[in-house]
């Protein structure tokens, strides 16, 4: 067993480590924001967010600025949308597994949550269609299309098309929650459902936490004007404005051209970490079942015959921590876990999986 004083290796947080954050670029962006627009940066703003950033985002997505609202992180954007659309007893659809905070938020609102199996190419649309045919009428379906948290999977193009068709046919909001879209290591990017939406059914969310810095706390929503206006009304009663300083810095950074350079650096580092994780798992835990993600921060791993509930404290004693699969599911997941590889170096990953394997062996 590892000595208690040995530092734990943490596969727990989906955040980039400090060494792959463009600290110098963010310092320059902050200085430029403070110099070029001190009035807009340091004063109260409006509930739609920092207006130049809102305009930039609208241009990126090919929509009118009135279709964009910038918030304090994408989780706040999610919470605003749920407050608008979901009341106690309302039906909602999520993937199984899905992001644990989404489950918590929806359950706290008293929603009737329908968890649909997640396959390696995205949500099981046949199962979703059967649910809809049974008479269930969800207010929204929450979908994480790219490099899913926690699973790492990516929604196929065919399934994106089918989800758009189902949302139009059965009249529900398709909530495209897409904070990892830029962090692709390999393969061709797929068009967003937002960009293909002909029926005003998609509300899109993303964030700068995964490409710029988690501490920047800047996310946004894009959707139909009437939906965004109603969300804006909720934001207005929540605060006078979101964080103008952070949003002004993000705007300065994005317009400087440094964002794409930063994204390339993040992709390069995370691909090396993904590769290290795959290699270590194949060497140390050949029985592990997983699909290597094409991007993002996470890998979903099944350990057949292993109780994760029992493994969790033993792994901690061995100096390695992860998140239990059951945290992301309404039921099940006892032999599954999520490994976040974004905040650990390849060397730490190699050592961490060696420790994890030792913990697994000690159970038997």
From TrEMBL:
Q: Which GO terms describe its biological process?
A: alpha-amino acid metabolic process
Record flagged with keyword Amino-acid biosynthesis: no
Q: Which UniProt keywords apply?
A: Aminotransferase, Pyridoxal phosphate, Transferase
Aminotransferase class I/classII large domain residues are: 27-356
Gene Ontology terms for molecular function: pyridoxal phosphate binding; transaminase activity
Which metal ions or organic cofactors does this protein require, according to UniProt? pyridoxal 5'-phosphate
Q: Which PANTHER family match?
A: AMINOTRANSFERASE, KYNURENINE_ALPHA-AMINOADIPATE AMINOTRANSFERASE, MITOCHONDRIAL
Say which family it is in: Belongs to the class-I pyridoxal-phosphate-dependent aminotransferase family.
Q: How does it assemble?
A: Homodimer.
Which named protein is this? Answer: Aminotransferase class I/II
């Amino acid at each position: 067993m590892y000595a208690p004083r040995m530092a734990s290796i943490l596969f727990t947080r989906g955040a980039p480590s400090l060494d792959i954050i463009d600290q110098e670029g963010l310092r320059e962006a902050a200085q430029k924001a403070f110099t070029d627009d001190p009035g807009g940066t340091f004063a109260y703003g409006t509930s739609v967010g920092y207006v130049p950033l809102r305009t930039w985002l609208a241009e990126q997505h090919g929509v009118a600025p009135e279709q964009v609202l910038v918030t304090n992180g994408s989780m706040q954007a999610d919470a605003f949308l749920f407050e608008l659309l979901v009341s106690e007893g309302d039906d909602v659809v999520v993937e199984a597994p899905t992001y644990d905070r989404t489950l918590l938020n929806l359950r706290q609102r008293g929603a009737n949550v329908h968890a649909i199996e997640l396959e390696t190419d995205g949500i099981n649309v046949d199962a979703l269609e059967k649910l809809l045919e049974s008479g269930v009428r969800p207010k929204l379906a929450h979908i994480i299309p790219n490099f899913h948290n926690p699973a790492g999977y990516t929604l196929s193009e065919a399934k994106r098309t089918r989800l758009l068709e189902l949302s139009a046919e059965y009249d529900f909001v398709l909530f495209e929650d897409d904070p990892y879209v830029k962090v692709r290591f390999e393969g061709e990017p797929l068009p967003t459902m937002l960009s293909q939406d002909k029926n005003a059914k998609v509300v899109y969310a993303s964030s700068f936490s995964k490409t710029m810095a988690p501490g920047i706390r800047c996310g946004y929503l894009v959707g139909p004007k009437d939906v965004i206006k109603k969300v804006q009304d909720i934001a207005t009663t929540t605060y006078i404005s979101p964080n103008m300083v952070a949003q002004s810095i993000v705007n300065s950074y994005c317009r400087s051209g440094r964002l794409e350079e930063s994204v390339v650096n993040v992709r390069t580092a995370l691909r090396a970490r993904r590769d290290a994780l795959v290699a270590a798992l194949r060497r140390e835990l050949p029985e592990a079942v997983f699909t290597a993600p094409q991007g993002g921060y996470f890998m979903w791993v099944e350990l057949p015959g292993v109780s994760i509930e029992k493994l969790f404290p033993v792994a901690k004693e061995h100096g390695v921590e992860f998140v239990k699969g059951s945290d992301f599911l309404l039921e099940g997941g006892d032999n599954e876990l999520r490994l976040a590889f974004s905040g650990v170096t390849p060397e730490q990953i190699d050592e961490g999986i060696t420790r994890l394997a030792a913990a697994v062996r000690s159970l038997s």
